[in-house]
Amino acid sequence: MIPSEMLEELKALLGDRVSSAPADTYVFGFDASIHHHKADAVVFPESTEEVAEIVKLCNKYRVPVTPRGSGSALAGQAVPIKAGISMSFKRMNRIKEVRVEDLQVIVEPGVINDDLNRELAKYGFFYPPSPGSGKVATIGGMVAMNASGMRALKYGATRDYVMALEVVMPTGEIAHFGTHTIKDASSYQMAKLMVGSEGTLGIITEITLRISPLPKDTSIVLAAFEDARMAGQTISDIIAYPMIPASVEFMDRVCLQSVINSRGVDFPLVDAVVMIELEGTEEEMAEDLKKVEEIARKNGAVDIRVSSDPEKMKEWLEARKAVLPSMSQYARGKMFMVSLADDMSLPISKIPDAVYGFHEIEKRHPHVVLGVYGHAGDGNLHTIFLIDPRKEEAWKDAEKMVEEMYELVIDFGGTVSGEHGIGITKAPFMRIEKKDSMELMKRIKRALDPNDIMNPGKNVEWDDGILVDLRYPVEFGGD
Length: 479
What we know:
Number of strands: 19
Helix content: 25-40%
Mean pLDDT: 95
Largest sheet: 8 strands, antiparallel
Distance between the termini: 33 Å
Low-confidence stretches: none
Structural class: alpha+beta
Strand content: 15-25%
Radius of gyration: 22 Å
């Protein structure tokens, strides 16, 4: 619990922008993961200075603080698992400066990704990382997770675009990391360390991002396969050609059925679909389109569609982004989507074997339906579990399945998270993958945050299982 003296000091600082009302503390105990834990209070700072004063109080009273953007995190990063303060950045949402002459933009952490790109488009530029949750995902959250999305194959992830950060450290000190220059070889890259740290090392209050010119023209090839493994092989063959498309997206039958049910999109209902997005001039794309079709047909594509129509391409891409929220439509009220092993990344050549292996594992677990999709061109697969969350046996089946899937991923030389981060849900498997560096990472955490107030119990600190503090109406161990 927060000491009453601290609560009074918070109210003196923020007025009605601090709340311990049950409705607020309950709601801010969720993110998009399977976990839930109530905060003791919610605060809404409007400036870096206010964030610093709040953190000083948290450090003084040893109260945990969990930073939060829109709550779209899928592994529990925004869940205040140790209670304390939930810090919302919805009021720090200004695009402070667009500097196209320096290829950069300066923003507050609460700026929404798609809002930023709408503003940048006025200048002929964009911020390439494009998560499926871009309509709600905040830039601060994207930096904290090292988010990426569809275009990482060609453009990279958030870490590749962060030039400078303003960060409130666990003591309340305001630090500035990085530079406003394209090149930076000066000493330790502290800004890069903060990217992907999930709020466990400090709280990001200002971000300088590198931006890129908008592409000239775009086309999409949609190739349908009756063998998901051959769809995966097509992806590997395109990359090896060599060709680097803007994005390469994969959806299996379960995902296709879900988006067809929820959105009525005219996708072929086959074992798998691959969408290849190409950029360039018409002349540049013509040869690439021809080669993509050739590779897809060689691997048994049963249907190939090509479009450069902006509305059609938007429809296809929006349908792909809608896989996650559409999954519960697959079983229409009988099973529901839960985020478990949702974000593994593998060497691109291992995609065909991974897709096949995941579905072989699924066959051994009758209480789970598995959907596989993702940014397969850069090796990043997402898996969605459909279960009846009211049944203990469904959770236990899913838990065992997650263990087997991550064992396969690590055996293939992959990583447990490509873009969604670690939080709680993937922490047990990161301990296996990163066993040689876990102690060093814990030392960094202890050195920067000796009182353990920054989003405690997450990432390198989580030492429990995954079925903890569930948001669902099930209790394990009952009759």
